[in-house]
Write a structure and sequence with these properties.
The chain has 4 helices and no strands. With 124 residues, the chain is mainly α. It is rod-shaped and about 110 Å long. 40% of the residues lie in helices and 0% in strands.
């Protein structure tokens, strides 16, 4: 076999030199790119979530959607606001000075003959 030969086929093409500064990764460049991409992504996500939101925020939104007059606005009352386990429908009767009761009382007079087209089932 060739175990006794000492010839080498390896030759040095260029000598290795120690670099004066790091070649990769460029930390400053990577941080700037990451901040810009994060900012652009965050703004794009915010606009996308706003686009998906179809909440009716004002009575005018409801009028524009249904093309009917808004007779009143009833506030949303959650179970946490109720004093105990009483029925939600009884809250307007038990606390007559609450905004919840006032909202229901303000809707009734508006459903008169002037708004009969808006609530035909109530004017029979």
């Amino acid at each position: 076999m060739t175990s006794g030969t000492s010839s080498s086929t390896i030759s040095v093409v260029d000598r290795a030199e120690v670099p004066s500064s790091p070649f990769k990764p460029d930390l400053r460049k990577n941080l700037i790119i990451a901040m810009l991409l994060g900012l652009i992504g965050g703004v794009a996500l915010a606009y996308f979530l706003e686009y998906l939101d179809d909440t009716l925020r004002t009575p005018e939104d409801m009028e524009r959607l249904t093309r009917l007059p808004v007779l009143g606005v009833i506030p949303k009352v959650t179970r946490g606001k109720a004093a105990d386990d009483r029925a939600l429908a009884l809250q307007a009767h038990e606390d007559v000075r609450s905004t919840f009761a006032e909202a229901y009382r303000s809707c009734a007079p508006r459903c008169n003959s002037r708004h009969a087209k808006a609530c035909p089932g109530l004017m029979s």
